Amino acid sequence: MDDRSTPLIDIRNLYVEYLTNRGPVRAVENVSFAVKSGEVFGLAGESACGKSTIAHAILRVLRPPAVITGGRILYKGVDVLGLERTSPEEYRNKVLGGVTRKGIGSSAELIERYRWAEVSMVFQSAMNSLNPVVKIVHQITDVLMRHLDIDRAEARRRAEELMEIVNIDKRRLEAYPHQLSGGMRQRIVIAIALALRPSLMIMDEPTTALDVVVQKDILQQIDQLKREYGFSILFITHDLSLMVEFSDRIAIMYAGEIVELAPANEILNNPLHPYTKGLLASFPSITGERVKMSGIPGAPPNLLNPPAGCRFRERCAEWTGVDIPRSPQLQEVIPDHFAACECKYGRADHA
Amino acid sequence: MDKRQGIRDTKPKNGRLRVLEQRFPWLFVIVRHRQARVGLAIISVLILMALFAPVIAPGDPTEYHGVTNTPPSKEHILGTDPLGRDEFRLMVWGARVTLLVGFGTAALAMVIATVVGVVAGYFRGIVDDILMLITNLFLIIPGLVLLIVLSAYLHPGTGTVILALAFTGWAFHARIIRAMTLSLREKDFVAAAVVAGESSFSIIFRQILPNMVNLIVGGFIGTTIYGIGASTALAFLGLTKMTEISWGTNLFYAQNGNALLLGAWWAFVPSGFCVALAALALTWINFGMDEITNPRLRAERELRKALGRKFMQRVRATPVRFRER
Questions:
Q1: Are B199 and B205 in contact (CB under 8 A)?
Q2: DSSP strands (E only) in B97-186
Q3: What pLDDT is stored for residue A221 in this prediction?
Q4: Listing from the earlier edge strand, what are the strands of the sheet with A9-20?
Q5: What's the sign of the alpha-carbon dihedral B176, B178, B181, B185?
Q6: Which domain holds residue B149?
Q7: In chain A, domain spans
Q8: Of A243, A275, B30, B233, which residue is 20 to 30 A from B136 by alpha carbon distance?
Q9: In a domain? residue B7
Q10: Which of B315, B316, B324, B325 would you mutate first to test chain A, the one with the most A CBs within 10 A?
Q11: Is B171 contained in some domain?
Q12: Looking at residue B134, which CATH number applies to its domain?
């Protein structure tokens, strides 16, 4: 296996639905993207477009009424959606590189090993993901001891290491979450996500609740850690400017679908999809001229009953009058730059 | 719409039904829940039986028919009891008092529980201390003993029974509601209401109370079961007004006339069965209520039904069920 040719995680045609009384809400439809080793992949889009649903689906922590109704999530070549049927040998060979780890005796256990040890997550509003009545040290050692074959003293030593990594005095291990500032709590959550040295870290709006100074501080720290340990990041936010600065490649989502996928500066300098253009037009430039912000008129469609064809058509400023019968597919408009806009760029033949 | 794959899209086709569903989604959750549906049907039948007793079983239920302890016959569908009364009439008319006592007890007990619980939880401090002292007193007094004492000293009658049962049945729910209020009053939306200048009264009833509807309704149903069961027990012990017809007094007279010894099952089975049926139906409705307040329960149950028991048991991971496209 060559690390360069196979992506770390490859999401293919993913569908996720929420079953409600009024019928299924199609939160994620036919989403495909891949994150390479060491890459920061950004997932952007407005609220309720399905970003977090994808993140949670990757870890398979969504609970019913959510159901994954299609697609594959290949992590190092193993389908996460079929982990219950994957043999421990296959998992050990493909994911762990032949090394035996604690608790991979049966297929049913694999999902628990895959979560956190392989893919970890910094949850939205990280402040609330710490238990207010448990000391920080126990919240960190719990993770370590659950997954690794180590005793309490060793776990504590590693917890101290982790605190050092995220730049917090190790005496703070004895603190309760409410005794720490928002930024510190955020860094502790990141430390917990780092604890098992995962290959992929999903960050679901990790800095939304923080002020810009702390935000910058934390992102720089993450960037440095990433360089040091070489993990990949799936970065989710609706803050486009932050994302452009931080990510290597970006996918823009709208109403459950990816509408554009390109390297970060391509998205910023040469957006192809009208929705991306609209998003970018909603952010003021600090150095440029004063222009009136335009925004995008209208609202996203109801995903209980999404319109056939292009979901952005109703709000599109560049609609050519051509009706697309099916959902527009992502196609490579210019090298490495994909957009799903068939009325402007025509339809790729390979479909 | 693929049944085989277990992903069921429930969409009423009828336009009017859909409007109804959007207005009263909870009604549809109940109706879709099999046990709750059956429970609702049973309790409706029992209530209709009580309301239309004069139509269903015309005639005076206390009428003496000249024969005691006759088994079911053409004349007396369910036979006669040891006092020579028609058992079918007794059962039908008995529903009136028993159900009235059940629902009346629940209404009264839950009003007391809600007021005490919310006031104690919201105002805290000395108010809380005093109200909870009283609540705790009621909690530790053995219910049945207090009931017997109360029934013995008060003038017997339906109203007295309701009062006595509500008196002994409210304390438990008051504590639950207080606990919930304590938690809710710290939420930001309550702080926002305080800042917006809403009165305590309005905060309690418009902000806090609607968040506890599930607790109150659940408590109401539970207390109804308690009311029906306890009033039947009281009557069976002969502690209510014995000239009233209720399922409990029916059982009392059956016991008094040695129906069990004589093998006269028709004297005690109908009323006893009705009590059990009512309790069962209400419990089932409560199961359905759970799914209204927690949609996850419904989704998990439906998925489990479709995908088999083993599924989702050991590892809690998002279910994968492919849909054909």
A1: no
A2: none
A3: 87
A4: A23-35, A9-20, A66-75, A78-79
A5: negative
A6: 33-293
A7: 37-47+82-254, 271-345
A8: B233
A9: no
A10: B315
A11: yes
A12: 1.10.3720.10
pLDDT surpasses 60 at B4: no
- Which residue in the set B8, B303, B318 is minimally distant from A61, CB to CB? B318
**Residue B286 and residue B220: Cα distance in Å, rounded?**
10
Q: How far is A169 from chain B (nearest CA, A)?
A: 32
Instruction: Give pLDDT, residue B136.
Output: 94
The domain covering A37-47+82-254 belongs, at the CATH homologous superfamily level, to P-loop containing nucleotide triphosphate hydrolases (3.40.50.300)
**pLDDT band for position A314 (50/70/90)?**
confident
Q: Is residue B100 part of a domain?
A: yes
Question: What does the angle CA A121 – CA A261 – CA A320 come to, to the nearest 5 degrees?
Answer: 140
Q: What is the DSSP secondary structure assignment for residue A233, as one 8-state letter?
A: E
Beta strands in chain A (DSSP E): 9-20, 23-35, 40-44, 66-75, 78-79, 119-122, 200-204, 232-237, 249-254, 257-263, 331-334, 337-339
| ipTM of the shown complex | 0.77
CA nearest neighbour of B250 among B272, B227, B277, B278: B272
Let me know if residue B143 belongs to a domain.
yes
E strand segments, A174-285: 200-204, 232-237, 249-254, 257-263
Closest by CA to B319, choosing from A26, A84, A25, is: A84
- Region B224-230: what's the mean pLDDT? 95
CB contact (8 A) between residue A23 and residue B10: yes
The pLDDT score that the predictor gives to residue B312 is 52
Residues 16-35 of B with CB under 8 A from A: 21-22, 25, 28-29
- Structure confidence at residue B276 (pLDDT): 96
pLDDT in tens, B292-323: 777 777 777 777 776 665 555 555 788 887 87
Taking CB atoms and an 8 Å limit, are A65 and B299 in contact across chains? yes
Contact B178, B122 (CB under 8 A): no
Q: Residue A5: its pLDDT value, please?
A: 58
- Residue A1 banded pLDDT, cuts 50, 70, 90: very low
B87-96 average pLDDT score: 93
Q: pTM value?
A: 0.78
A349 or B227, higher pLDDT:
B227
pLDDT at A172: 93
The whole-number average pLDDT for the span A266-281 is: 89
Number of domains comprising chain B: 1
Are residues A67 and B321, on separate chains, in Cβ contact within 8 Å? yes
